[in-house]
Amino acid sequence: MPSSKWYPWDFxxxxxxxxxxxxxxxYFFQFCDEFISHIILELMPKKLVDNGNFFKINAxxxxxxxxxxxxxxxSLFGNNESYLVIESQNLPLKTxxxxxxxxxxxxxxxxxxxxxxxxxxxxxxxxxxxxxxxxIEAPRxxxxxxxxxxxxxxxxxxxxxxxxxxxxxxxxxxSYEFFQAANLISLxxxxxxxxxLEYVQKLIRPSKLDHFQLANLFGTKKRSHFFGMISSKDIDxxxxxxxxxxxQGHLFKMxxxxxxxxxxxxxxxxxxxxxxxxxxxxxxxxxESRIFGELEVEAKSKSPLLKNxxxxxxLSSF
Length: 318
Hints:
51% of the residues lie in helices and 10% in strands. The protein has 16 helices and six strands. β4 (82-86), α5 (93-101) and β5 form a beta-alpha-beta unit. The chain is globular, with a radius of gyration of 24 Å.
């Protein structure tokens, strides 16, 4: 079963379109997130999309009978319809099982399953189904510039380097944040070449949370600064949830620094943990960890009282 892994920009360098129009068959795509999915799926070949026989269907509606009717029964009218199955992570269990147990030969049609996020179903199907499996990997955290440029290219934006640097420093390294920023800039500065940094700074306020910087701040017992910073920023619940999860892991490492003992070479982060741990008692670390656990629950449930809780933590730190 042919399979391949790509980073988004590498896939588009090697493939100008989502699929090769001269290679019909069954395809499975797994994307790292819905924004990367949107960009790559928009590049379906015009030859395929514009012929009137290409349709989208939600995976929840795909049944074994539907597959047999569309791809195993010879059409009297010779329509040769092709389909893009969106949200394929939601394929019914009976459909998944049918695909695993019934070889599906598609000679002159396209059946494209799109998983908008990582799914166990994709991995399981890749081991049992004869098809082309393509996995689009999430950009690594140090590939922020490539990630940003990939999304800007979708909006046909060519931004000055000072604007790119501002975005990388000011917004979270995520497809969602880059997509929203690029979309907004494209509305005010189509093409992007005349984009002025001072205007972008007014359009897009800094919202990035540097987890390591904040952990360092907290580790040096600058608790008021820590909660003051996150209380003053324009950040959403998911960013806060991610930070609170990270902080619990960080405090656990401070509580038990033995994980460093097996390392031949300590990173700067490891050395900071060892140094900061000396200033804390086990009771203090456990208490703070419980607080971050409570904050994570509030962020996950999108509690409207969370911002007030953060301000209280800030005030109680003095």
